[in-house]
Structure formats: structure tokens, C-alpha cells
Specification:
Blueprint lengths: L2 H43 L1 E5 L3 H8 L4 E4 L4 H4 L8 E4 L3 H12 L3 E4 L9 H13 L4 E4 L13 H9 L3 E8 L2 E3 L8 E3 L4 E6 L11 H19 L1 H8 L13 H4 L1
Parallel strand pairs: 1-9, 2-5, 2-6, 3-4, 3-5
Antiparallel strand pairs: 6-9, 7-8
Helix pairs in contact: 5-6, 6-7, 7-8
């Protein structure tokens, strides 16, 4: 190859790289617009049916907020339930990147990080979440994220509740019509527009100063497991691959939240 040919090759490389970057940026913008449109439409058209909703009682009796604890698979459905000023812990993954503008459009406050031990940015995100909750705002965490295994609750939610002094409210959100991403580790569920969203709450879990955080995480895990078996037994069977958990009434902890 001649010297002139080498120079020509080197000169063209940066332009090709810039072209690829422009295509990637455009693709991301289009993707974000489609996601935004879909979720806005879904949020406006779904019908929410609630069961065992204690949120107003918590606010009334204790003048405090709470932390939604949900499965990673139910994040998309949670968009329909989101309240303004809810702090949402969002992973630093590509999926999390798509959620940020969507959450902002709903009035939520995305906080980037992870609830997993040792995850990059986890400690900083937790400190931001604690300040957010202490300021009198609710929060939401996908407690088995960002990498699973599905249904295995990390103790970040227990630490947040302990440090901020507000209760954990386990919740499952099951769309009547949905698309299930069966190959994803969490079997993510995408609600269809105009569907009915079955929203079932567990009893509030209050975390004391001396409570063992691993044990609290197990309590949240058990509550979510029971709720999913009660609300969506077919999906629970597939996702958890275990025998059904007995559905007995949970001991109410509302009095401790007062």
C-alpha cells in the first residue's frame, strides 16, 4: 500500500466514526420518543383496581410517607401508579436510561443507582433516597434488581426504611392484558393500553433501629411472594418455579407506623 493510500484511510476513519455516533444518537432519540408515547398512552387508559390499600391511613395516622417495594418485573406497570414527587431508584442500565425521561414526565424524581450490595453508585443513590424520604416524599424501589435473581430482595430497601423512618409497603401490579418478556431474567411485564391493572398491597412493614436488615429483606420477599401467588398464580408458578405459598392474612403493622 502506498503512503497516499494510508493517509486516505486514516483521514476517512474519524468521519465514519462520527457517522456511526449520529446514527446511534438518532436511534436512541427515536426509541425514547416511542417509549414515552406508549407509556403516556398506557398510563391514561389503564383502569387501576386496588386491594388492601393502606397508603392514606399511613399518611393520616403518622403524617409520613412510605416506600413502595415492588418486583423488577412490575416496573413498567408501576408507571401507572406513580405519584408526583416519588423518588424512584433507577438502575444505570440501558433500560434505566429509557425510564428517566418517562419518570420525569410523570412528576417522579429519578435517582440513579442500585439497591444491590457493592453495585456502582449504590451508596450515593441510597444517601439521596434517604434525604428525599426525610423531606416528606414517597419512594419506590424494584427490590430484586438490577440483576436478580427474580424475587430475591436486596436489603437496600430495609436500610432506606430504617434510615428514613418510614414504612415499606410491598405491592404487586398485575395487568389484565400484557406482553411478557419471557427471556428476560425478571420476565418483565408490559401492560397493554385500556387493560385493568390489579394492584394488591401488602401490610406495611416498619423497620426499627435495631432490626436485622437481612431479616427485614426476607419479610419483604415473603410478602411479595404471597401477593404474587394470590394475584397472579400462573406467572408466579412459571417465574418462581416453586409450590404455591400459603395465603394467610399478614399481621397488620399499621399501629406501629403511627
Amino acid at each position: 500500500m502506498s503512503h497516499s493510500d494510508q493517509s486516505e484511510t486514516v483521514d476517512r476513519s474519524p468521519s465514519r466514526k462520527r457517522g456511526r455516533n449520529k446514527k446511534i444518537t438518532l436511534t436512541k432519540r427515536v426509541e425514547a420518543m416511542v417509549v414515552m408515547w406508549y407509556f403516556t398512552f398506557m398510563r391514561r387508559t389503564v383502569r387501576i383496581r386496588v386491594n388492601n390499600d393502606r397508603r392514606d391511613a399511613i399518611r393520616h395516622h403518622s403524617e409520613r410517607q412510605f416506600i413502595y417495594a415492588l418486583l423488577h418485573a412490575h416496573q413498567a406497570a408501576a408507571i401507572a401508579l406513580s405519584d408526583p414527587n416519588t423518588g424512584a431508584l433507577v438502575s444505570r442500565s440501558r433500560d434505566g436510561e429509557l425510564l428517566v425521561p418517562l419518570l420525569k414526565s410523570c412528576g417522579c424524581i429519578p435517582i440513579r443507582g442500585s439497591s444491590g450490595r457493592g453495585e456502582k453508585g449504590g451508596a450515593t443513590a441510597l444517601s439521596h433516597m434517604i434525604r428525599h424520604c426525610r423531606a416528606g416524599h414517597p419512594a419506590v424501589i424494584a427490590v430484586d434488581g438490577p440483576k436478580g435473581p427474580r424475587g430475591k430482595v436486596q436489603k437496600g430497601v430495609a436500610m432506606l426504611a430504617q434510615k428514613s423512618g418510614i414504612p415499606i409497603v410491598p405491592v404487586v401490579l398485575v395487568p389484565g392484558r400484557r406482553i411478557t418478556f419471557a427471556k428476560a431474567w425478571d420476565r418483565m411485564q408490559l401492560p397493554m393500553p385500556f387493560c385493568e391493572l390489579d394492584c394488591r398491597f401488602g401490610d406495611p412493614i416498619v423497620v426499627g433501629e435495631d432490626d436485622d436488615l437481612d431479616q427485614v429483606a426476607l419479610r419483604v420477599e415473603s410478602s411479595l411472594e404471597r401477593l404474587e401467588w394470590a394475584t397472579d398464580p400462573q406467572e408466579a408458578t412459571i417465574a418462581r418455579g416453586a409450590r404455591p405459598v400459603p395465603i394467610d392474612s399478614e399481621a397488620s403493622l399499621l399501629s406501629r407506623a403511627a
